[in-house]
UniProtKB/TrEMBL annotation:
Keywords: Amino-acid biosynthesis, ATP-binding, Cytoplasm, Histidine biosynthesis, Hydrolase, Multifunctional enzyme, Nucleotide-binding. The keyword Cytoplasm applies. Residues 29-102 form the Phosphoribosyl-AMP cyclohydrolase domain. This is Histidine biosynthesis bifunctional protein HisIE. In the C-terminal section; belongs to the PRA-PH family. In the N-terminal section; belongs to the PRA-CH family. The gene is hisI. It comes from Desulfuromonas soudanensis. The lineage of its organism: Bacteria, Pseudomonadati, Thermodesulfobacteriota, Desulfuromonadia, Desulfuromonadales. It catalyses: 1-(5-phospho-beta-D-ribosyl)-ATP + H2O = 1-(5-phospho-beta-D-ribosyl)-5'-AMP + diphosphate + H(+); 1-(5-phospho-beta-D-ribosyl)-5'-AMP + H2O = 1-(5-phospho-beta-D-ribosyl)-5-[(5-phospho-beta-D-ribosylamino)methylideneamino]imidazole-4-carboxamide.
Amino acid sequence: MSLADQLKFDAHGLIPAITSDAETGEVLMMAYMNAEAVDLTVRTGKVHYYSRSRRKLWMKGESSGHVQHVREIRFDCDGDCLLIAVEQEGAACHTGHRSCFYRVWNGEGVETEGEKLVDAASIYGRADILDALYHVIQERRQNPTEKSYVASLFAKGLDKILGKIGEEATETAVAGKGGDPEEVVGEVADLFFHTLVLLGYYDLPPERIYAELRRRFGLSGIVEKESRGK
């Protein structure tokens, strides 16, 4: 009997997994696994999770190099929660902190505990930064604060989000006409960001866009457009 066979997954086929440092016991993060992620974790000795936003399996550190090496796996009395002790390479949190639990509520406000181990942007490469940014956008949406720009966009609704995309698209076109490469980079980054907010509004992870681009790859643009018309 496998470990997955002894666990109780929820209606979505997922189980929460709390990951801690094997040496210190410090809680590093909490994420979800499905049966396949559990099996891969046991088989490879490296922690795998299931991303609810991206709807796909992922291995911790697959793009950042911040791998979690399994030292022990426990599950609770009900079999519906995992506790995994690991040897953590680098940062566990996508923000660059050692642990995702780096914020402390002191009764009046939030204090930040510990310095970042790495610049969060350096953890990700190429399209991975879009996935990381989408994750942050969804977190801000689900846990809004008064100082969150993303939360304010969601609070103002779809029309506000669409308006910002139109605004950034126009500014991108103006920058392109102006001929300053740095301005083009900045405006395209703004456009990408607000487009990710729109994807978040509809709960569409960037992987859906990647899949559509892969589908179109190698096709004539004219042929592909005609096929959509039909």
